[in-house]
Amino acid sequence: MIFEILQIITEEVNNFFNIEIEEKPVSLDNIAFIESETNDNTNTSNNVVLSLLHTEEEATLKNIPNHQIEGTKVVYKNNKVHLNLYIMFSANRTDYTESLKSLSKIIEFFQSKRIFTQSNTIFDREVDGMDKIKDFRFTVELFSPSFEEMNFIWGTLGGKQYPSVIYKASVLEIERDVTQSEGSLITEINGNLNHK
C-alpha cells in the first residue's frame, strides 16, 4: 500500500498543476539517485521528484483488539500495521525560480486538500498495482525539520541540496487478510451460587 499511496499523491499533485503537456511536473523516484551516472531515468530531469524518506509505525494504534465478531463466531487476526510516511518533494528544475514556484504550488495543493479518501481522490487504476485498491483514508500534513535534521537528511541522500518540502502522510493501514484462529461466541453463562 506504500507504493499505491505515493502514486495517488503523485497523480493528484500532477492534476493540480493542470499542465496541458505530456510531461508531468512531478515524478515518483528516489532523489538520492538523481545524479547517479547509471540513472537513465529522464523523468527526474527538470522535474519535481517525490521520494519516500522514512516509514514510522503509529504507536498509539498498536493496542487495538485483534478480533472481530462475524455472525456467531469470533475471528482472530494479527493487528493491522498503521504507518506514517515521511515524503519529500525535491525541485530539480533547471531554473531556480521555477523550482521555488513548483514548491509553492505543491504547498498550495496540500493546503487545500489534506484528507485523501477513495471518494474524493481520482487516480489511474490502469497503472500496474493500482487496480486492487479498496477503501483508503490518509491525511497529509507539513513536516518542518530543523536545519540540523535537514543537513542530516541531505547528507544521507548524497549531499547536494535541492529546494524541497517534507510532508507526513498518516495513517496508512497495512493488513494481510489471514485468519489466525476462530472460536465461537459465549452466548450464556451457567452456574450455581451457594449462599451460606
What does this molecule look like?
This protein has a six-stranded mixed beta sheet. A three-stranded antiparallel beta sheet has the order 3-4-9, with no helix packed on it. 22% of the residues lie in helices and 32% in strands. A hairpin with a 2-residue loop joins strand 3 and strand 4. It has three helices and nine strands, in the order αβββββαββαββ. It is an alpha+beta fold and 196 residues long. The protein has one domain.
Shape summary: elongated
How can the largest sheet be summarized? 6 strands, mixed
Q: What are the segments in which pLDDT stays under 50 over at least 5 consecutive residues?
A: none
The total strand number stands at: 9
Approximately how much helix is present in the residues?
10-25%
Could you tell me how far the N terminus lies from the C terminus, measured between alpha carbons in angstroms?
62 Å
Q: What sequence of helices (H) and strands (E) makes up the elements?
A: HEEEEEHEEHEE
The amount of beta strand, in percent, is 25-35%
> What's the alpha carbon Rg, rounded to whole Å?
23 Å
Contiguous helical run count: 3
Number of domains: 1
Oligomer: single chain
Secondary-structure-derived class: alpha+beta
Indicate the mean pLDDT: 81
Strand order of the largest sheet: 1-2-5-8-7-6
